[in-house]
Write a structure and sequence with these properties.
327 residues, alpha/beta, 11 helices
Length: 327
Amino acid sequence: MKTSRIGMGVLVLLAWLAGAPCMALASEWPGRQVRFIVAQAPGSSADGSARQIAAALATIWKQPVVVENKAGANGIIGMSAVQQAAPDGYTIGYAAPGNMTVNQFIYKEIPFDPLKDFTPITQMTSIPFALVINGKLPVKTVPELIAYIKNKPQGVNYSSAGVGNVGHLAAELFATRAGVKLYHIPNKGDSPALLDVASGTTDFMFLPLPGAMATIRSGNVRLIAVGGRQRIDAFSDVPTLDESGLKGMYVEGWSGVVAPPGLAPGIVQKIQADFSKALAEKSVADYLRTSSTLAVGSTAEQFKSFMDDEASKWSGVIDSIGLRNSH
């Protein structure tokens, strides 16, 4: 019995010694400026939220947090810079659906595996998608829209921000779930695509709710459903897709934080905890609320599981419409 206790003590000591370097690293981090790489252009919604959160983190960490925009190649350039950086916690990246859960199924050549070649840290936000229709369309609900489309043997047109965009994939998922025929009219971004819906060039589209709010309030387009798991305070009378009969259909944009592969677990935990604090700061909370964006602050494990589920969902849609390895 005595030998067993000694053996157990040795195991505990070895476990402590193995974790000690990680704990020491976490206690000393951050000792200098942190880079927050955003794989989108300055002025984008991702850039805006990143800068709000970075300002709050700078206060928490007592170190500068510099947002560095590296746009191009549908996010591949910026995320490559994150993946190739030193795994020391001083370079983190802004993760989004396209660059983490969609691109790898559409592009033939990507220099990394989004689900294996990064260290997940946290899902920062959830951004519900809006299903909007032309304001003159004679429907007000999702079941009415489905019935309207089914009464059009030639089908109807829908807009998107471009081929392979989440809005495009969401509409194709909708077509499958509703059993309707649709024609895709891709555009070069959400804003021009939304103008097509407002003018009647196309009948409807899916897009992130924050980018549609002004046009919805103008009356030129009508919001008939949101893609999140709950209703949105700013449009509390508008049901979710799930409530509208498309059970289990969720279409959300989101943002998260990843780091290069091999980041020490202690630093991962510290960054995750501090991002949760930053999301709760009044300036950040107010900014997110005005854009109908929901704060999340998940654990690294939850974020990894979430991305795996999202990738599985969109991979299936991409296969069904023949987009796999198309670019």
